[in-house]
From TrEMBL:
Domain of life: Bacteria
Classification via PROSITE patterns: PROKAR_LIPOPROTEIN
Species for this entry: Pseudonocardia endophytica
Renumbered residue ranges of the record's region Disordered: 29-48
Signal peptide stretch: 1-28
Keywords per UniProt: Signal
This protein's name: Small secreted protein
Length: 202
């Protein structure tokens, strides 16, 4: 059991702030005797494959912030240990956001109308949340564990930053885009994203 219950509770509360806040037409090609390979993105691409890539990026981005991935401070016997565990965790979250952004870019252009706008909203959220986590980590890294009062103040400051963290965006922002909705329903990665971002039971 931690000998620093106040700092341990503050660190746990800081992490809890992470969770307080996640088309109709395809342009058809002209048939030919020797058709070119189907594109992997943009007009003519398979909506299901493209959607699975997008949701895969969202899973990468959000998975370290699920309740099961939260660090356990119960065994930390020093404030140095609390600081390191919290800093390491925020570093993991930051790396996942960066990787999710790269995967989102790699998905390419949407094959159906409306998909690019959806991806932009996800990309914007990742950028904002990435900065929030980086700022919070900087607060934690700058603290002197030997100064209990300063440590508490830095944790409170980091907590205030993380309370601005945007909640996971759902997959319901598509509007009247039946082909993309159908692709999302069939996507294993979209199903996983829904599962890990659903709110906990009351």
């Amino acid at each position: 059991m931690s000998r620093f219950p106040r700092q341990t509770a503050a660190a746990a509360a800081l992490l809890a702030a992470l969770f307080a806040g996640g088309c109709a037409t395809t342009i058809a090609g002209t048939p030919s005797a020797d058709p070119a390979p189907r594109p992997t993105s943009g007009p003519g691409a398979d909506p299901a494959a493209w959607t699975d890539k997008v949701c895969g990026a969202l899973v990468t981005y959000w998975k370290p912030m699920t309740p099961g991935a939260l660090p356990n401070f119960a065994g930390d016997s020093t404030e140095d240990a609390i600081k390191k565990r919290l800093s390491d965790y925020l570093g993991t979250v930051s790396a996942a956001i960066d990787q999710g952004q790269q995967q989102l870019k790699a998905a390419g252009a949407s094959p159906v109308t409306g998909g690019d706008d959806l991806v932009k909203s996800y990309a914007d959220a990742m950028t904002r949340n990435g900065k929030t986590v980086a700022d919070a980590k900087a607060e934690v890294d700058s603290v002197d564990p030997a100064n209990a009062q300063a440590f508490q103040q830095k944790l409170d400051s980091a907590d205030a930053k993380l309370k601005t963290f945007a909640a996971p965006q759902g997959l319901d922002k598509l509007g009247n885009t039946p082909r993309l909705v159908k692709a999302i329903e069939k996507s294993p990665k979209c199903g996983e994203y829904r599962q890990i971002t659903q709110p906990p039971p009351p």
